[in-house]
Structures are given as structure tokens and as C-alpha cells.
Specification:
This protein has 296 residues and is mainly alpha-helical. The chain contains 11 helices and no strands.
Length: 296
């Protein structure tokens, strides 16, 4: 009976959050555009011919402007830029989401542990966090990508293990606020252990804020992946938006005036990051009571 009541309350809270989020037109628009992009990326193998990615069997001529056959023109190898953009979305989104999951998990665990245990545990974790905060995350990611074998997994690891400190700081502050509440003291007085307090009280309390922060981290991860791929540190065997920009630069598309080769991946990155930012800001307004009266 008690479990049923708890789930009813959680469902009611989720419905309330969704209604508040739906009232934010910017966040709702961003979510809609993201849904379309994700669906197109997932359906790319079904709605396009993957054979068109093979440079040996490229169907068009190099650097042809947009036409009826190729709506976004062709690249230096004669491949459809529209096809490359759709398939590039799969890798860019995969890296963005995967690196974000890794980053948020590390940051959440470190933040909760630092606030909950305190003492020397907090001191060590905070110094470790400060070390990563002081050093530029992109420089660390470049260093890791240069040392480790090239591949999508390396890019995910490089971004994930260098971008977690901001999440850790945010989660630590929220955990300290939660653990100062009277019900935490009552739980400890009744014999609640570390796992009970963290699992039943702290984690549910920080998850909404972590979710809002996650949407912002995804955008940063996509930018980081595009930057690393643009610098030639990505997997040369796969197509991503960053690798498209890098390929366009090295093939002379800029000096040749082939704007159709540069514009689609560049705009795709801008649109996706903007959408994640809109969704993140809207969620942040919903889950943070102090911001409800400041943002519309």
C-alpha cells in the first residue's frame, strides 16, 4: 500500500513538472526539434542508402552545388551532403549522449560522496575536482584523444572524464541543502544507514537538478566532439558533423566557395546545441523554485 502511494505521488509530481515545462514555449519548441532530429538519425538506415557513404561508389561529381538530385550538393568525393549530414547526426548524438551519461554519473557520485561523507573524503574529492576545473577540459580531452587509439569510444571517454567537475559542484551544493533538512536527522536517529539516506532521500532530491544540467552537458559534449573531430582526432572511418567540417576545410571547400559543404553540418551543430540549451533552461526553471519568478 505504501509503495503504491509513493508511486502515485511521483506520477503526480511528474505530471506537474511536465505541465510547467509545457508552459515554457522555448523549451517545448527545442524539445520538438530535438525529437525530429533524433528520429531522423535513428531512421537514417531505413530512409537512406548507406552505400552512398562509400567514396568508391559515390553517385555524384565532386563539389556540385545543390540540385534536384542532391538537395544539399555533394562533397569532395561526390557523396550527397544531405546523406552525410543525416548519418553524421548518428555519431554526433551518440557521442554527445554517451559522454554526457559518463560525465553526469561521475559528477553525481563525486558530488554526493563529497557532501554526504565530509571530512577527508570531501577534501580529497574537492581537490580532485578543483584540479579538473583549473585545467581546460578541451585540452585534457585533446591529450587523451592523442594518446589513446582513435575511435568513437576514445572520444566518449575523453569528453566524459574531463567534463564532470561542474556537475560534481552542483550536486554537492544540492546534497548539502538536502542533508540540512530535519527529515534527514530523523532518518539518522531511526537508524538509517548511508545507503538508505542517499538512496531514499538524497538521490531523489538531486535527480531533477541533475536532469536539467544533463541537457546542457549534452550540448557541450556535442561541441567537444565536433571540435575533436575537426582537429582530426576522431575516427576517420565514421562520419560526424565535426569530421565533415574538417574534411571541407582540408579539401578546399572554403576557398572554392562550396558553401553547401560547410553550412549543413555547421547549422546542425548550432541548432542541436541551441535546442538542448532551451530545454535545459526550461527544465532548470521548473525544478529550481528560485528561478520560477525570473524566467518566463
Amino acid at each position: 500500500m505504501t509503495a503504491g502511494i509513493v508511486w502515485q505521488r511521483r506520477r503526480a509530481a511528474a505530471v506537474g513538472v511536465w505541465r510547467e515545462f509545457a508552459a515554457k514555449k522555448g523549451g517545448l519548441a527545442g524539445l520538438g526539434v530535438l525529437a525530429v532530429i533524433v528520429v531522423l538519425a535513428l531512421l537514417a538506415p531505413l530512409i537512406t542508402d548507406q552505400a552512398g557513404l562509400d567514396v568508391v561508389h559515390a553517385p555524384g561529381k565532386p563539389l556540385r552545388p545543390p540540385s534536384g538530385e542532391f538537395p544539399l550538393g555533394t562533397d569532395i568525393d561526390g557523396r550527397s551532403v544531405l546523406l552525410l549530414t543525416l548519418w553524421g547526426a548518428r555519431i554526433s548524438l551518440l557521442v554527445g549522449f554517451s559522454a554526457t551519461v559518463l560525465s553526469v554519473c561521475i559528477g553525481t557520485i563525486a558530488g554526493i560522496a563529497a557532501a554526504h561523507f565530509g571530512g577527508w573524503v570531501s577534501g580529497v574529492l574537492l581537490r580532485f575536482t578543483d584540479f579538473f576545473l583549473v585545467l581546460p577540459s578541451l585540452v585534457l580531452a585533446i591529450a587523451l584523444s592523442s594518446v589513446l587509439p582513435q575511435g568513437v569510444a576514445t572520444i566518449i571517454l575523453a569528453i566524459g572524464v574531463t567534463s564532470w567537475p561542474t556537475t560534481a559542484r552542483l550536486v554537492r551544493a544540492q546534497t548539502l541543502t538536502i542533508e540540512s533538512c530535519p527529515y534527514i536527522e530523523r532518518s539518522k536517529a531511526l537508524g538509517g544507514g548511508h545507503l538508505h539516506i542517499v538512496g531514499k532521500h538524497v538521490l531523489p532530491g538531486v535527480l531533477p537538478l541533475v536532469l536539467a544540467n544533463t541537457t546542457l552537458v549534452v550540448g557541450n559534449s556535442i561541441i567537444a566532439e565536433s571540435t575533436l573531430s575537426f582537429l582530426g582526432l576522431g575516427d576517420p572511418a565514421v562520419v560526424s558533423w565535426g569530421s565533415m567540417l574538417q574534411r571541407a576545410l582540408t579539401s578546399g571547400a572554403v576557398t572554392g566557395g562550396a558553401w553547401w559543404y560547410l553550412l549543413p553540418p555547421g547549422l546542425a551543430i548550432v541548432v542541436v546545441v541551441l535546442c538542448f540549451t532551451l530545454v535545459g533552461r526550461a527544465l532548470e526553471t521548473v525544478v529550481n523554485p528560485r528561478l520560477k519568478g525570473e524566467r518566463g
